[in-house]
Amino acid sequence: MTLTAEPQPATGPARAGRREWTALGVLMLPLLLVSMDVSVLYFAIPSIAADLRPGATQQLWILDMYGFVLAGLLVTMGSLGDRVGRRKLLLFGAALFGAASVAAAYAHSSGALIGARALLGVAGACLMPSTLALIRTLFQDPAQRTKAVTLWTTVMASGISLGPVVSGALLEHFWWGSVFLINLPAMLLLLVLTPLLVSESKGASGGGRFDVLSAVLSLVALLPVIYGIKELAKGGWAAVPAVCVVVGLVVGLFFVRRQGRLDDPMVDLRLVRTPAYGGSLLVNLFAMAATVGFAVFLTQYLQSVLGQSPLEAALWSLVPTGGVMLAAPVSAVLAQRVDRAYVMSGGFLVSAAGFGWLVAVDRATPFWVILVGSAVYAAGLVSAMTLANELALGAAPPERAGAAAAVLESGSELGGALGMALLGSVGAAVYTAAMPSSAPAAARETLGGALGAPAGVLEAARSAFVSAMSGAALGAALLMLLAAVLSLVLLRRR
Question: Against a cut of 0.85, is the pTM above it?
Fold first, then answer.
């Protein structure tokens, strides 16, 4: 008698159940609010200025402090989460975000509000990489992880768009501090539910010793670069921002060299050099450059050319997210059947087509044409970015998930700053060339400088700005074509 072994069930990554998906929903709460806080003060600044009377420099720091601190600490907090525990860091970030929100809401001076915004940036840097790293550990199955990262990317993009809408709606009925107090219920819910739904996760051996010098170097490298690029984008060439960029790059070189010598580095350079992770990081940077760089023009077009109120412009700016809601899940499904490099490349090509559509706009272009083009480029961009995030996260070992997520997000911040500088420079050059030489100097520099000018000058400035927006759209389309090529070259069969 011959004995035959019974067939064994196929083994594979454990599939997430109801608890994991519920946990994902809870994790989306802080992500939404952290991303909203980037833009939530756009409408509140006039009320804050009337109440606290900040100087011009203080007003800029009220707006920018959160984003600068957030960007500078992402890598540090991502690496720290791998060592002390991502859930622990998430809970600490939630508690700090809630406390800093109360401090910001009831700030009685500009300095106090700037300090509270800095604390919000620290808390946001704890929350953002923790949410993405926990997705890596919650969802082991690649197909489910793709869906989870799709939701993460969509919520992240939606939060930035929702910030002005939420602040505009609140300021219709409440004082400016209300834009911060809306954070409290979500953070309280996070503190209650996270221990029940999310298990602690960190590196296999606790991630080793935390290198304080590397943390300092990463902060000193990122902050001056992002600050300098943004200042150059806003005000043109100036010595101080240029020096900041150079200093940041030099410090960044020391940071990279130190990571290469450490046994347990904060950023694993071997991971960055792998095509799956490094290639995803690069195309994501191009995607954010196009997104942020062009958004500046679209926002100003809605308000200063079409004459929409800030709240009306914010509501219309949500329309392109409809394309994102449709395209992101479709791309995730396609990536299960086709090499995702082809799907990503296709997404970037769709985005290039959307930007190309906007290259042809002029003053007579109907508004719906602008909306359709914006929906197309947003759909392609977010679809490709979702797959890039998922591919990079899947390439990272679980014990490095926090640092890997943080480097991805830092690349996005840097890409946004580069996009503002690059596309802003293109738009400024086109605008100046399109303005008549007889216009006042201020009107020849920016559309804002022409708002108080005679009607003829203002109309010329609006036409010149539309031409500048077309030039920026062309630059963004070229960036998307380059990203499509890089996706195929670097990420095929990864």
Answer: no
